[in-house]
Amino acid sequence: MSARPIAHLSRRWSFVAAHRLHVDSLPAEQNREIFGKCNNPYGHGHNYIVQATFSGPVDEATGMVTNLADLDAFAKAELLERYDHQNLNTIKPFLTLVPTTENLAVEVWRIFSAYPHAKLTRIHVEETGNNAFDYFGEGEKEVS
């Protein structure tokens, strides 16, 4: 019996959200020095693009790593309904965590790592045309 080939599937979703980069324990001037215009007291928004990559054996019957309809339903319920048209500063865990896109990528990893039908291998979050962040689960506890 031959082993089933492993394929890598990447899927993209987009959402609009606002945030303000600010550390409460730092003086106002230091926040402005560190975060610049991203420290605007009224916040600012981005059109985020999230790309999740999953790996798994190609199913012999369907020829797929996972069913895209299942994956899209999961993304809608767990990512888009939570973040689209929201102020990230008002959503857990960003009530206590600076809502940088680096931290957002880690949180998106935590969301998609719960997807039961394929193994998450990468999260890619685009904040702007110039800024994109990748997270591969480094530091995350392995789920067995």
TrEMBL record:
Its EC number is 4.1.2.50. It is an enzyme of class 4 (lyase). Pathway: Purine metabolism; 7-cyano-7-deazaguanine biosynthesis. InterPro entries: 6-PTP_synth/QueD, 6-PTP_synth/QueD_sf, PTPS_Cys_AS. The keyword Ion transport does not apply. PANTHER family: 6-PYRUVOYL TETRAHYDROBIOPTERIN SYNTHASE, PYRUVOYL TETRAHYDROBIOPTERIN SYNTHASE. This is 6-carboxy-5,6,7,8-tetrahydropterin synthase. It comes from Granulicella cerasi. The lineage of its organism: Bacteria, Pseudomonadati, Acidobacteriota, Terriglobia, Terriglobales.
